[in-house]
Amino acid sequence: MEPVRLAMVGCGKMGQSVHLRNFLQVKRCSVVAVCDRQAGLAREVAEVNRIPRHVDSVDALIKECEFDAAAAILLWPLNVDLSIPLMEAGKHVYLEKPMAANSDDARRMVDCAKTNDVKLMVAYMKRYDTGCQRAKRIIDEARESGSMGKITYARCHDFVGDWQCGYDPPAIAPKGEVKRPNISDGVPDFVAEDERGVYAGSNAMFCHILNLMRYLLGDPQGIRAATRRPGANPFAMRSVTVFDYGDFDCTLETGSVAKTEFDEGVRINFETGWLDVAVRAPLNVQAPATVTVCKEGDISTLAPEYGWSFRREAEHFIDCVADDKEPLSSGEDSLKDMLLLEEMYKTYRGG
Could you say which of 2.70.98.10, 3.30.540.10, 3.60.110.10, 3.30.360.10 is the CATH number of the domain covering 126-306+336-348? Predict the structure, then answer.
């Protein structure tokens, strides 16, 4: 079988040192082109990584290059305008999270993927973390068999911390001033003017824990209550949200802390046991989430299955393109995170 021909769109630090690095090592993938609006940067990245083509626009990429799929590693306000032309050209698209600035744009992207019969995947790497996947298998089995009784309560939290852990491989720096989009671009109209920045920042930081909550527990029936307060970090809302899961509630606590460790995780309590998932920092390479299980008083921390979730999600995207499978973190599924975030904000504001 011929490898999937991939174009890399966006040559920022994350694009070069994380996503491009991993796609270059996926066996069924051939990176055939690099695209960045800084033409010199695209050329240098292509030369260093022995990639045959480089262009400075998505329009040129579509017209001049032969490829099957694109990995667009950009700030989220840019995703909708770049992904739709790619999908309309019949290209499969892989995006960094969050998929968009608002649910209307996200829905347009999902509809475009369906219309053009292409894959749209959002890089929620926690779904490809071996620890999180193991936790999901245990939770699903316990709920199906009743081996620990029913779920009585769940708690998710994300207080961020040091997400890079000193991971700093060489990357080619852009030359001159880089014009970055305003992160508040595209924020929903119902967001108050003085809260557009914190809404955008919370979308970027906390979409991960929303997505992980849904991955492990399924979709909530609604929101029972929500509170929020300003935080020391102007882009990280301090909030507590109570989600209604029918037989139980799940709280979601968000904020930011001034400490070096990364602080994010999920605790699920059953009638006769519990399960705890401690998520590691995203760039803590090869460190999966730690899973601890208590069954009838017997507590055990499971041995880790090593593997970098960013590599595993890149492999998954290529497999989905090659084998015509639906991605685990599809655009259609990721739209639900956008809708939940908007519902959370409306609840904070009182409806």
Answer: 3.30.360.10
Query: What does the pLDDT average to over 148-154?
Result: 97
**pLDDT tens digits for range 257-280:** 776 788 999 999 999 999 999 999
Nearest-angstrom CA–CA distance, 213 and 210: 5
Domain range list for the chain: 4-125+312-329, 126-306+336-348
Which residues are within 8 A (CB) of 244 and not within 5 positions of it... i.e. 6 or more apart? Answer: 220, 221, 222, 223, 224
Kindly indicate the confidence band of residue 351, based on its pLDDT and cuts at 50, 70 and 90.
Answer: low
Number of H helices and number of E strands within the chain?
10, 14
CA atoms within 13 A of residue 328's CA, in its CB half-sphere = 21
CATH class of segment(s) 4-125+312-329: alpha beta
Omega within 30 of 0 (cis) for the link into 98: yes
3-state SS, 182-200, equals CCCCCCCCCCCHHHHHHHH
Q: Which two tokens stand for residue 54?
A: 């480089």
To the question of pTM greater than 0.90 for the whole model, the response is yes
Whether the Cβ atoms of residue 32 and residue 5 lie closer than 8 Å to each other: yes
Q: Kindly tell me the sign of the dihedral angle through the C-alpha atoms of 17, 6, 329, 287.
A: negative
Lowest-pLDDT range, 55-64, 93-102, 182-191, 207-216?
A: 182-191
CA distances to 13, 213, 219, 270, 351 from 310, rounded to whole Å, are: 14, 19, 24, 31, 37
